[in-house]
Amino acid sequence: MMNKQRGKTRLLITIFLINLAYVINLSYANASGDEFPGRKLYPAVKYITIKDLKNKLNEVVVVDVRSKYEYQTLRIKGARHIAISNKKFVHEMKQLRAKVGDKDIVVYCNGKTCMKSYKAASKCQDYDVNGVVAYDAGIMDWAKIYPHDSVLLGKSPIDTDDLIIRKKFNSYLLTPDEFEKQFSKKKSIVVDLRDSFQRDATGIYVGLEVRINIDDKKALKTIIEKAKKEEKALFIYDAAGKQIRWLMYFLEANNTKEYYFMKGGARGYFKSLQEKYTS
């Protein structure tokens, strides 16, 4: 029994160190002043700029690799959806490659500090799916600049005034330290919103949190109603502080009374630990 517990403890420590090492690498990339840190972390991945993608939009195949919910909320007009979290991701990308011939396939996510587009392109390289490049400026930048080539909640062209503005979104953000302090003080429910492949087998608050996939609307509605009934606040975090922005549309539509997000998500949490123990 003790050996099993020790093994579990070693596993959790290993996972923690892997996460911390990743954040340190990302922090160094950010510290160099790079707007796109993923370009250094994934040097083998080819990328396309926002202007070049606009100019070539009718010549390439665009794939959204985020969750289904994020795709349904806001996407590039004409984009297909193949989530990197899908176990059949490689298989579906191979099928797409065979279908579209020699056209470049452009994968995108939430951009800049969101690494899904790089990871998707890198995974395609590993499995010999050629001609896959990453658009790394993200969907929000695209929607603001090219509203006629965007779809918001099923409508296109979009009205950029309907996008949740940064100021309002920021008002719901708490630093990792404040996040912990507040959910410890309040009647609360902590939600880990990360995709399964992003969790690395463990959560930040093991035993204290609920894990929900952002695509599982039934589970999301259940937890919202539970929070209302029990008069509890929702404290939600994702991988990098990106998915929560899309979840905000759902929370508002369901009249969620009190909710907060962790600034920077799990990545921000591990970065704050790095700063504490290396300063």
Commentary on this structure:
This is Rhodanese domain-containing protein. It comes from hydrothermal vent metagenome. With 279 residues, the chain is α/β, with parallel strands linked by helices. The protein folds into 2 domains: 122 residues, Oxidized Rhodanese, domain 1 (3-Layer(aba) Sandwich); 113 residues, Oxidized Rhodanese, domain 1 (3-Layer(aba) Sandwich). 46% of the residues lie in helices and 15% in strands. The chain contains 12 helices and 12 strands. The strands form 3 sheets. Strands 1-6-5-2-4 form a 5-stranded parallel sheet. It has a 5-stranded parallel sheet with strand order 8-12-11-9-10. Strands 3-7 form a two-stranded antiparallel sheet. α6 links the parallel β5 and β6. α1 crosses α12. The two termini are 38 Å apart. The relative contact order is 0.13. About 9% of the residues have low confidence.
Helix-strand sequence: HHEHEHEEHEHEHEHEHEEHEHEH
CATH homologous superfamily (4th level) name of the largest domain: Rhodanese-like domain
What percent strand? 5-15%
Structural domain count = 2
Q: Helical percent range?
A: 40-55%
Catalogue the unreliable spans.
7-32
What CATH architecture of the largest domain would you give?
3-Layer(aba) Sandwich
In which order are the strands of the major sheet placed? 1-6-5-2-4
